């Protein structure tokens, strides 16, 4: 029996598209590619989400081979990236319905300590019974440890949880420990149909 709904944050409850943010700093496609690949698509960014390195370390690596004209952009991106995280109103409406139906609601997000700079800008979080930020625990999706740690911390039974994430690899990780899981691609009709399979009826 499902008792808990667990949400990823980026591209589930909020829009998170670094490429769009980067395009504000340069119109040069090569520079955009460099910034994306050397900031957000790096092993260092994963470690940032894991809480094991700082933004300063990411900046040092990105600056090593960066054109001089990108130096200011790199620092500014790292200082302000989270300001481009935009709530998805339709998903807050879904969350409110699930809350009214009596489900416990949680967030399980790969997120750095910067989360505490932008959480106030995400209204949907006020409906949550718990928020799990990976940097606080030095873990990362899709490693099994993150799901076990999350469930242990909130005293949840995996088989009583539905987990929603936009990345198939993270969904597979949750499913591997016994959580029901769904790849969410901002398709509310598909989400409604998925919930319906568990007897959870929401309006879109």
From TrEMBL:
GO terms for molecular function: hydrolase activity. It comes from Enterococcus pallens ATCC BAA-351. It comes from the Bacteria. Keywords: Hydrolase. It holds the Pfam family Hydrolase. This is HAD hydrolase, family IA. The lineage of its organism: Bacteria, Bacillati, Bacillota, Bacilli, Lactobacillales. Coiled coil: none annotated. SUPFAM superfamilies: HAD-like. The keyword Hydrolase applies.
